[in-house]
């Protein structure tokens, strides 16, 4: 006759006596617990492997027809249901382990002691062999392990289907009631995380600095509007519709531009664009001696200053228009934008001839910056934190905004620990400023305008 848990609890038997049936019970229980630990490790490692594998890699594995890849893709197509499957299976296994262990310990211990021993004993076993070791293995062998466990997980989904359907439904209701959203249904990689990965890659020497800058410009590109990258009206070179062809050619040569906007009456009424190639060909080789400039005008687009440059680039390519006119809400010409301007937003400034660098470093803490440089680029290049998205787009606009008036050469404006000294002014326009990052107050020869802290 075996020793029953109730007899042990009542103190009616000798705990040192274990019959053959008790030994068999203990052996079977130990075997079952061992199997349950393996299952716990299976579900824990499956969670890591299944959700650490990137979607694009799963697609590639399916296209390569790897064994288990199709099942893996089916499971990942419904990540919420997959997570429920793993959690239901893992919790059933762990609870069953704890219950069986309590029954085994009750053969030798009182009920309270058995619960205590089972709780801490099973916790230790699960942490070591059901969580830590399996998850470490899954992290190091993510792809191969995900392919191996896909089939067994699909089988577990069929076996546990009633529970999975129930808890899947309940968790979705809870998410709606609480106003939350299951994190498993959102993207695992955000834009900021990709930027951080790129920066880490640069520090580790995996990618070059110019590669990192180009990728970051690509991310910034679709949040940029035409006004931020256009050539402003003040810098535009254009010709009147009544200009003769020879004069238009001379204007092209002097400005260094291959294309010129053509206006009728005033610059706010741009009617098209002429190319120096057409002007020279028709002037020297044209058969029609009465040919005028308006006969060579090609149409162009007029786009609002708020137009997204990502959409604009696509539209310019579709219409084969390398130059467009940017207008404000009143239809007034604000500037022009070329395909080169858009390209520079991704690959960086394309300098020609004696053109100066937009940002020229004097030393580690000081740089000479052209006034028309976008404030976002200033922040990125110099590592400063000037405000963005306000009523100014450029460094010159920022200086005017802070000063609240026109400034002259030699004036200095302080913004927190940043000192901006106006180096060059043409008429009322700031052409260049010296930006210095200082941590202690310095004395300058020019007039100082204190604007306050950041």
Mean pLDDT reading? 80
Query: What is the strand arrangement across the widest sheet?
Result: 8-9-12-11-10-13
Radius of gyration: 36 Å
How far is it from the N-terminal to the C-terminal residue, by CA? Answer: 84 Å
Oligomer: single chain
Helix amount, in percent?
A: 40-55%
Number of alpha- plus pi-helical segments? 17
Unreliable spans are 1-16, 440-454
Shape: elongated
Based on DSSP secondary structure assignment, what is the total number of beta strands? Answer: 13
Kindly estimate the percentage of residues that lie in beta strands according to DSSP: 5-15%
* Element-by-element helix/strand order: HHHHHHHHHHHEEHEEHEHEEHEEHHEEEE
Describe this structure as you would to a colleague:
- The N and C termini lie far apart (84 Å).
- The chain contains 17 helices and 13 strands.
- A 6-stranded mixed sheet has the order 8-9-12-11-10-13, with helices on one face.
- It is elongated, with a radius of gyration of 36 Å.
- It is of the alpha+beta class and 454 residues long.
